[in-house]
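Step 1: inspect the first sequence and its tokens.
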Amino acid sequence: MTEQIEEALNEIRPMLAKHLGNIEFMKFEDGVVYVRFLGTCQGCPLSQLTLKAGVEEILKSKVQGVDRVEAV
């Protein structure tokens, strides 16, 4: 499961890197992926939109068993 999540995040990272940001996988528990935004993504006013409309949708479509994504 962790490997599948990391592979999906690797597809997302180049988009975040264009804005000098990144994302770090923290853990997977009970259908929830916990991530941490890094760089300029951390504290960005649009980070919640990126999390739900971008990261969460991509992970849910690529990794079976992911119900939602939360930032820590």
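Step 2: inspect the second sequence and its tokens, then contrast the two.
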Amino acid sequence: MATQSTVSDGGRVVIPAQLRLKLGIGVGDVLVWRQDGEQLILSTKMAAIRRAQAIMAPYNKPGQSSVDELIAERRREAARE
């Protein structure tokens, strides 16, 4: 779905009601902007979290904690110093 908005004073952009309803965006919701080349991509906070989880999914190891691995790695580095 393509639609357009105009940037007003202070950089404000209105998200059309049809898109807000379709995406479940309500008053006070947190939105995340990110730049992709020459595009701005606006996502809901939950969509941004799901995207980050999908990016990290190949690195998840069942039964292992990434946090525990990081702490262990840092301890090994500290021991070498």
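Step 3: confirm your contrast with the notes below.
The chain has one domain: 9-80. Strands lie at 31-36, 39-44.
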